[in-house]
């Protein structure tokens, strides 16, 4: 079990479906601040918002949340948090958790449990949960993950994995009992030195095909530990309807 970890929250102002999403008001505070408050409940040693816009920095500072202005041209949130971690005086062995800026209902225990899986030999960790509805396995928007016996990722895919040969091919489709396919949760923890290495890794063919950033890590031969939670996580905020749902929750 690790003693401490840092949380960096990437928050990009541009959003096609929900303009100015990180600044959306939830119970009197910007959404990104609500995410930071959840990270604080997880026991993070420090929390920093990594953003591409000064308005987000200003909004965070008004709520006593640390924020760092980053370059605007980052391809992914992971690249954005890597820039921040490089600026901090954190050690190579410190753990840095990437908590998405649109997850104001994230479970703090999920953050700490995922961070705890990072070690000298396993430089990256993420999370997953068991899918409740069998038909979800065929939804390409639900990313699936298959694990080995040590709960390390073998592969992530938008396809139905593992493929139930004797059931999925049937016209009426039958499902294994128990049905235990895993859906990936977009939460990532890194050893700080590996976070810097990750940003320098070349883009992999399978990553481009699946459009899944984490496949770059597996393709280059690094292990990813996976925390399997029994709790179905609350959905993040992508649309105005999602925002209203979260506001009701608060």
Describe the model:
With 250 residues, the protein is an alpha/beta fold. The chain has a single domain (5-248), classed as Spore Coat Polysaccharide Biosynthesis Protein SpsA, Chain A, CATH 3.90.550. The protein is built from 9 helices and 11 strands. Strands 1, 4, 5, 6, 7, 8, 9, 10 and 11 form a 9-stranded mixed sheet that branches. Helix 3 crosses helix 6 (192-200). It starts with 5 loop residues before the first strand and ends with a helix. The mean pLDDT is 91.
- Structural class by helix and strand composition: alpha/beta
Helix fraction, binned, reads 25-40%
> Could you please say which CATH topology applies here?
Spore Coat Polysaccharide Biosynthesis Protein SpsA, Chain A
Q: Indicate the radius of gyration in whole angstroms.
A: 18 Å
β-strand amount: 15-25%
Query: What's the overall geometry?
Result: globular
Mean pLDDT: 91
CATH top-level class: Alpha Beta
Q: Could you list the spans in which at least 5 consecutive residues all have pLDDT below 50?
A: none
Order of helices and strands: EEEHEHEHEHEEEHEHHHEH
CATH H level: which superfamily? Spore Coat Polysaccharide Biosynthesis Protein SpsA, Chain A
Whole-Å distance between the termini? Answer: 32 Å
Number of strands: 11
Biggest sheet details: 9 strands, mixed
Number of domain modules: 1
CATH architectural grouping: Alpha-Beta Complex
Helical stretch count? 9
